[in-house]
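Long-time lurker. I teach an intro course on protein structure, and each term I like to show students one example going from raw sequence to a predicted 3D structure in token notation. This year I'd like something fresh instead of my usual example. Would anyone be willing to generate the tokens for the chain below so I can use it in lecture? Attribution to the forum is fine with me.
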Amino acid sequence: MDIAYLDNSATTRVCPQAAEKALQMMTACYGNPSSLHSLGAAAERELNAARQKVARLLGCRPQEVIFTSGGTESNNLAVLGAAQAKIRAGRHIVTTAVEHASVAAACSELERQGWEVTRLVPDPGAALTAQQVAAACRPDTVLVSVMMVNNETGARFPVDRIVPAVRRAAPGALIHCDAVQAAGKLPLNAARLGLDLMTVSAHKIHGPKGSGALYIRKGARILPRSFGGGQENGLRPGTEALPLHAAFGAAAEALPPFAEQEALYDSLRRRLTDGLAGREGFALNSPPDGVPYILNLSVLGVRSETLLHFLAERGVFVSSGSACSKGKKSPVLTALGFSGERIDSALRVSFTHTTTPDEVDRFLAALYEAASSLVRRTR
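-- Reply from a regular --
Happy to contribute to a lecture. Here you go:
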């Protein structure tokens, strides 16, 4: 069945270049990168090449890239590893109330261990200012973690202004940014931003699931969360998943230019919002100045789960929020103060560079049908 896949913030289809690279690594260059023989040396060269490609995606040096199993592990390593490394300097963390579950849960675990966490709530328009973040810092603040793009609403936080503000307010704090929903679609330059830590994931940019990376600025120190061998500078021990990491590099290398992507996303968003304009029963939950490739909306009077099944039966695939929430009420929309009706009927539509106008049109047609038939049934 021909489908309209608009759930690219949950995961993307693996691109041919990444799939071919993974197959090559599994069947031809299958040595262990730590082995001393020629097959091991060839594998190590491939791993180094992948690290260089991901470093270009992040805007950093290859030696500052640590490969992990994905965004969740990278975020956990960043938050927990940074906190433990700085424990003698303080036990206070600043983050937001709308972070991805992997950051939020790691902070909650630190709270359980006796840390104090300040969770900043963006305003109703999903805006967060550098002044808010700086004002929350204290002499005992050792970590600030703020995402670049929100995974549910597409709100974009001003990391470029937050970093210098935090440096003035809490010079000793490490600064982490979850850039999973920004990587591959927005230009990244970890060094220029002045970040200490930054997270990305392969399967959001047409790479495979099971591979991610954590940028760690040279000179920044965090502690490992697992122990064993000396791989990945001792921070992520165990034999590297070379097929996945090499495919990550291939996917990063295959991305189209950012300007080309931006033009596409702007046109797709306009097409979607123009299609909803003037129609009753729809509400947009994303801020107007958010990224154009994530749009959160509500079909008032119909629960998200019902909508998802209705759309899927017609070959249209979106989500009700973060895939990691597994259908639970959105903590992001809750924190932003949306009504229960808006939250219970929320959908997230997300584009990638392979999304077509026809897919948006199919979504709109199915959405009109859902709003007409399902709302009538609930009355």
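Some talking points for your students: The two ends are 32 Å apart (CA to CA). The CA atoms of residues 54 and 249 lie 6 Å apart.
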